[in-house]
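Can anyone check this?
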Amino acid sequence: MIASAALATTAPLTWQSWQHVPAVFDLAGPRSDGRLVAAAGGRLLLVGTDGYHAASGPEAYLALSPGLHVSAVGCDFARDDVFVLRPDKPFGITRVDANGHATNFADITGVDTLTGIVFDTVGRFDHRLLVTGPHGQQSTVLAIDCKGSIALITQVAPPLEGGLAVAPAGFGTHAGELIVPDESSGAILAISAGGQSTVLVASGIPHGGDIGVESAAFIPPGFSAGGTTYIADRGTANNPHPGTDTILRMTSAEMTTAAVHDGDLLVVAEGGAVSIDVRCGTTCIRTVIVPTDTTAHIEGHLVLVANQTRPTASPLPAVADLGSRRAELLVRLGIGVAVAATLLVLAALRMRRGRWRP
């Protein structure tokens, strides 16, 4: 896969207003009960219900735990816990459980603020929580396990902010890597578990603060057969793109008319909601699917919900599982030896009982 792009054209689409949510900033989900979580006006809301927790900071990006196991430390993230960035000092992450109880999860130092959060759902980063924050003219990427321990991935990534994503297992040589938008340059970057940054593709979208690429997400399996995409349009006064304080949506039926397929990368700009579809093989094909620069002011994560979701096993090893094929064979051999030994013991006991039966 190389960092070049061919431009394809298709019938233009538009984002549609769905629900008005004052001061909406970010979305995550769906939870196991099917509802989305929204960060809005310093609160976390279950969409369509009352708010259940006051979150700190006006720009608190969030991530919803799907319930993942971290092999290196042998623990699990609880499903439906929400992890919220604290972008003001003291920097860190607040954990909110499914019942709305908030606790401090991790304190973070060495950054100027916090600007991105996403779960590694594939495994290259051992299913940890990935967090980004600027430090001077560069960005730090951290991986945090379910016990709150922090590992440094890199301190020299380019500027990063917004709705991050992790590339699925089928995404070529960049499978499992962190995919991040750089609104300053307009580039879409891939960051490996070793901390190397690669330009995946130039978005072709106008770039700069409050204008450039903001949100990235991959289209999940089964989405094309029925699903919906959601994104936050934040009300922003005195801005060329003032927004509407609305959750926008687009259906899979509309998106398939623009030749969008499961596994593609969807990217949306902060200023105007211009949207592109990216499909990568030996090269990356960039298709503009929403060309109109509107008044929308996009923030946070794209959320794509397939009507029929199904779990998929990832063939990618975690960072802690290097040489896992050999380990797997040894485990299988050990299991076979244990089973054989158990059968021999049972046979010996049976023979002994027969010998001493009066």
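Reply from J.R.: I decoded it. DSSP finds two helices and 27 strands in the chain.
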